[in-house]
Specification:
The protein has 387 residues and is of the alpha/beta class. The chain has two domains: 170 residues, Rossmann fold (3-Layer(aba) Sandwich), CATH 3.40.50; 201 residues, Dehydroquinate synthase-like - alpha domain (Dehydroquinate synthase-like, alpha domain, Up-down Bundle), CATH 1.20.1090.10. 47% of the residues lie in helices and 11% in strands. It has a six-stranded parallel sheet with strand order 1-8-5-4-2-3, with helices on both faces. Strands 6-7 form a two-stranded antiparallel sheet. It binds 5,6-dihydroxy-NADP (NZQ) and zinc ion.
Length: 387
């Protein structure tokens, strides 16, 4: 096992009726900015619960943070934060709103340079000042509610970049599974697939004897597959939604990635596909992952065999056959959720995507994956398979 330091200061407040706890968690004298997305919280009662809990607080609002939050939208919020001297951010929504809040948290306090450098030039790591933030999660998927990552898009330049900073861990995150009852089936599907891929990016590399992390990852994969049918088809099944929510948080709260090699190449390629073609985040992952694993099956052989045996119960002794069947089982799981696994399913030409994404990798000099060996030519080969 590799050396590691684990740090996660986010308080999780989980369960029915927990939005009311906001009144105690948000500092009484704070000037609060409530951040939200396109308005789902105003239709499903979450907004009313938040405002009731904060009726004795000083709260302003900034809505309209879109999926794959855009830099230009967030910079409007940054101006508002500075002008109104906001000193607490409350993100109410899914990964896009939370990631947006994390960016605003750093950008509003960063006056020494161009805020885009937080993403493009790795400035995030150096910044010491941030506005504290809290979260009310309404869409289990990204794990953003309990991690230090943020992914921001800039449509005017066709970029989608990420940063990580310990300064933007939420102070608390409220996870009430009942807030998810209003989710469209497609978003539940997206959340399940995103979380599944998060686990795989931390598990499916090469063995380093990390028994605990491997078993935790396998538990999450098996748990996600077990709960998926109910979570998808019975919106008001509290236990299914509670398990779905907690699994997604655990899939990317840094714990299972401690002391083990990590990959993240599916995410890197996926972000480019979202920037180019507007695919939902999880959709972009599902059209890459099966083909990337096929392409990297030699490097990932030991872990693919382990996953096949333990997670999918494919026990045949012919290793090539076990890997083939494992990859088939993985795609079959995605298909059972109604999640396509090819670019062509979205009318995207794999040849064109291969060329464009490979060019980006070339320009940036990226070598991704646990061995940094997934380079431009490999990306092109992977995307050509997605037909
Ligand atoms: O905007 P509103 O009206 O709220 O509607 C949203 C949005 O349209 C809707 N929604 C959310 N909660 C709902 C609801 N609709 C009904 N009922 C509810 N309870 O769902 C739609 C999608 O929301 P969004 O926040 O965009 O989805 P998600 O949570 O999947 O976040 C995606 C973003 O997170 C980034 C992605 O790249 C993408 O930008 N990621 C962030 C990560 C992180 N911070 O660690 C890791 C991930 O790998 C990912 O990259
Ligand atoms: Zn993801």
């Amino acid at each position: 096992m590799d050396n590691f330091q684990f740090y996660n200061p986010t308080r999780i407040i989980f369960g029915k009726g927990t939005i009311a706890k906001l009144s105690k968690r948000v500092p009484r004298n704070a000037r609060v900015l409530l951040l939200y997305g396109g308005g789902s919280i105003k239709q499903n009662g979450v907004y009313d619960q938040v405002m009731t809990a904060l009726k004795n607080h000083h709260v302003r609002e900034f809505g309209g943070i879109e999926s794959n939050p855009d830099y230009s939208t967030l910079m409007k919020a940054v101006q508002l934060v500075r002008k109104k001297e906001i000193d607490f951010l409350l993100a109410v929504g899914g990964g896009s709103v939370i990631d947006g809040a994390k960016f605003i948290s750093l950008a509003a306090r960063y006056t020494e340079g161009d805020p885009w450098d937080i993403l493009a030039k790795g400035v995030a790591k150096k910044l010491k000042k941030a506005i504290p933030l809290g979260v009310v999660l309404t869409l289990p998927a990204t794990g953003s509610e309990m991690n230090h990552n943020s992914v921001i898009s800039r449509r005017e330049t066709g970029e989608k970049l990420s940063f990580g900073s310990d300064k933007v861990f939420p102070k608390f995150s409220i996870l009430d599974p009942e807030t998810t009852y209003s989710l469209p089936e497609k978003q539940v599907r997206n959340g399940l697939v995103d979380a599944f891929v998060h686990v795989l990016e931390q598990y499916l590399t090469y063995p380093v004897g990390a028994v605990v992390q491997d078993r935790q990852a396998e538990a999450l994969l098996m748990g996600l597959m077990e709960m998926a049918p109910k979570a998808m088809r019975q919106p008001a099944d509290y236990d299914a939604r509670a398990n779905y929510m907690w699994a997604c948080t655990n899939a990317l709260n840094h714990l299972i990635g401690m002391g083990v090699p990590q990959d993240w190449s599916t995410h890197s390629i996926g972000h480019e596909l979202t920037a180019l073609y507007g695919l939902d985040h999880a959709e972009s992952l599902a059209v890459v992952l099966p083909w990337l694993l096929w392409h990297q099956r030699r490097q990932k052989k030991a872990k693919l065999l382990q996953m096949g045996y333990r997670v999918f119960e494919i026990k045949c002794q012919k290793y090539d056959e076990r890997i083939n069947r494992t990859l088939e089982a993985l795609s079959a799981f995605f298909h059972s959720l109604g999640m396509p696994t090819t670019l062509t399913a979205y009318g995207i030409d794999p040849e064109e995507a291969a060329e464009k994404v490979a060019q980006r990798f070339e320009q940036q000099g990226w070598g991704k994956g646990e061995n940094h060996d997934i380079q431009a030519a490999d990306v092109a080969a992977i995307l050509r398979l997605s037909r």
